[in-house]
Structure formats: C-alpha cells, structure tokens
Design brief:
Layout: H1 21-24, H2 28-32, H3 44-49, E1 58-69, E2 74-83, E3 90-99, E4 102-103, E5 106-107, E6 110-124, E7 127-140, E8 148-160, E9 165-176, E10 186-196, E11 199-208, E12 215-226, E13 231-241, E14 246-256, E15 260-271, E16 276-289
Antiparallel strand pairs: 1-2, 1-16, 2-3, 3-6, 4-5, 6-7, 7-8, 8-9, 9-10, 10-11, 11-12, 12-13, 13-14, 14-15, 15-16
C-alpha cells in the first residue's frame, strides 16, 4: 500500500461586504454550478465543500489556480494535488488571497493564508466519512475586522443512495482553536443526481449557524460533452444569499484529456450588487483508475 501523496489547493477570497472563508474556498468547477457539489465533490472541490467525497473517484491529480475579483482588487492563488488511489484517500492544500476593499469611503487591505490536510474513508458500503484539519491566518486593516489565526476542523459525510444519486452533508469550522468571524461555523447539505452519464444536476444549501444564522443556497447543471480523446464540460448555476439579499448567476467551461484538464468559472452578482469573480485552474493527472461502484467492499479503494 502506498502512503497518500496529495495536496489540494483551493482558491480563497475575502468578500467585499464581509470576509467569510466558508464561502470563499471555492474552485472554478463548484463556482460554475452554483456552489452545489457537496453530494459529489471530488479532488480539489472536496476540501472546500465536503472532504467525504474524495473516494468517489480514484486518481492522483495536481492542480494550480488563479482568480481575480475587480470589486476589491483581489488576487487569488491556489495550488493542489490529491491522491484517492490509496486505501485512505487524502489531500494537503494551501491557498492565498490578497485584497484591497473599500467600505464606506475608506480603503484597507486583507490577507488570508489557509493550509491543511484532508482524509476520507469508506465507512459502510454506501457511506463515506471525511475530515479536514487546517491552519488559517487572517490579517486586515479594515475597521471592525480583527486579525485571527489558529486551527479549525471540518467534518463531512457522503451517502450513495443509488448509483445515480448522492447526498452530502458537511460541517465547517466545527471546532476552532480561536473563534473568528472570517471562519464561522457552518452546516451544508446537498444532493447530486446523474440522470444521464454525461449530465449532472445538483442543489445545495449552506447555513451560517453563528450570528444571524443566514442561509446560502444554489444549484446547477453540468453537461459533459465527450470527444474521441477529450471531454468538454459546460456548467451553469445560480446562488441566493438571504443574509446579503443577493442573487448570483454563474457558469463555466472546461477541457479534459487523459493527462490534463483546464477549467474556467465565473460568478456575477445580479441583485443587490455588481460583484464579478473569475477563477481558472489547470489540473495534471497521474494514475487514474476505474471509479468505485456501490458494490465495492470496504477497503476496496486500495491498489
């Protein structure tokens, strides 16, 4: 058995209206489908939404990404690699965000570093359990925002209802060494369905269980067009945040070969604001094995 060799990178940003790491740890794929992948998150999407999904495929993948948000001049950088070919799939990850927001006529800066590790395991034939341990450091010159650093712990589960339908739940920042409004406790749940092999539909909700207990929910569609050797995903989605009273639309495109993949995702605020976020990433694949089925035995993810 090989040791897990993996690192997972996430694009992390601090929002203009409020800094919230639970919303901002997104990559271009989940951004494009309305942040709705908790039921089927794999690879780099798993760490930001639901680490339990890592065993849903079997591959070694390295990823790097960059994003930009003009509203607060945010530059977003992430690097990644994740290995789910072992008996205990796992990831390491690191992300950085630097922004210069302006609120009430006053400008300032925000800087965020987040890094850590995720592991997941098939607990029962239809149940996957995963967790993330991360270290974060947040510094801000904005009035009313306090610097914070410490460790936080996430926990997630994925239930494979059928071969076509998955349900995922995840609690983020369930435990933290230091309380921070930038990394609040949240609970999310979602469902993903594949009515056709090339089509995935998803819907998620995420509750901030601290403060005003706001909710954020969204859904999306991915259509994977297959060529002779390549694939071309097309993604569409929408998000509603009842705390900000904001609505967003999103979309993205990609290309995947046996050796590499390119993804671009964008989100545009269409109600109560005009924020635009654009993310792009490139993946390089190592060994890729057949994905497990519902008939897989516990421990069946080993080489």
């Amino acid at each position: 058995m090989r040791l897990p060799v993996c690192a997972l990178g996430l694009v992390i940003a601090a929002g203009t209206a409020r800094a919230d790491g639970a919303e901002d740890q997104l990559g271009p794929r989940e951004l494009a489908v309305g942040e709705a992948m908790r039921g089927g998150a794999t690879g780099a999407t798993a760490i930001g939404l639901n680490p339990a999904g890592l065993p849903l495929n079997r591959e070694l993948v390295f990823e790097g990404g960059y994003g930009y948000r003009a509203s607060d001049s945010a530059s977003l950088i992430g690097v990644s690699a994740c290995d789910s070919t072992n008996i205990v799939p796992g990831c390491f990850f690191y992300g950085y965000a630097g922004a210069s927001p302006e609120l009430d006529g006053m400008s300032g800066t925000r800087r965020t570093h987040v890094g850590g590790a995720s592991v997941s395991r098939q607990f029962l034939p239809r149940v996957l359990i995963g967790s993330t341990t991360k270290y974060y450091s947040f510094k801000s010159t904005m009035i009313g925002e306090e610097d914070a650093s410490g460790f936080a712990f996430d926990l997630g589960a994925t239930i494979r209802m059928t071969q076509m339908i998955n349900v995922g739940v995840a609690a983020k920042n369930l435990w933290a060494s230091e309380e921070s409004s930038q990394f609040p406790k949240t609970f999310g749940a979602g469902v993903m369905a594949r009515p056709l092999p090339s089509v995935a539909l998803s819907f998620d909700m995420r509750w901030n269980i601290e403060g005003d207990s706001t909710a954020r929910y969204g859904g999306g569609l991915e259509w994977f067009i297959r060529g002779k050797q390549n694939g071309y995903p097309i993604r569409l989605g929408a998000v509603r945040d009842n705390g900000l009273q904001s609505t967003y639309v999103s979309g993205g495109l990609g290309m995947a070969t046996m050796k590499f993949g390119i993804d671009i995702g964008a989100r545009r605020q269409v109600k109560n604001g005009d924020e635009t976020l654009i993310l792009a990433s490139m993946r390089f694949f190592g060994p890729r094995l057949a994905s497990p089925t519902l008939d897989s035995e516990p421990g069946g993810f080993s080489d």
